[in-house]
Structure to design on (83 residues):
């Protein structure tokens, strides 16, 4: 993503897969695919996952490639503020 103050980048098409908690906040989870085809959560290993959430006023997007959902969420959960 890029932008100041507005984000002007656009992510690829994905199919929503609900939410997960990352760092104590809800994050939208999706699986990349060719919409309008329905994609399953299991297809995320091959196609990639996307997580979108906010930490304060900062919007965060995280993408994966060839990573299990469990490992992807573990990496997202390990992010920490820089001091």
């Amino acid at each position: 993503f890029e932008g100041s103050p507005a984000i002007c980048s656009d992510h690829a098409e994905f199919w929503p897969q609900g939410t997960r908690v990352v760092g104590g906040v809800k994050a939208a989870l999706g699986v990349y695919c060719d919409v309008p085809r329905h994609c399953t959560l299991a297809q995320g290993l091959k196609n990639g996952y996307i997580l979108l959430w906010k930490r304060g006023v900062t919007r965060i997007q995280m993408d994966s490639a060839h990573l299990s959902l469990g490992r992807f969420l573990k990496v997202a959960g390990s992010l920490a503020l820089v001091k």
Summary: DSSP finds two helices and four strands in the chain. The radius of gyration is 13 Å.
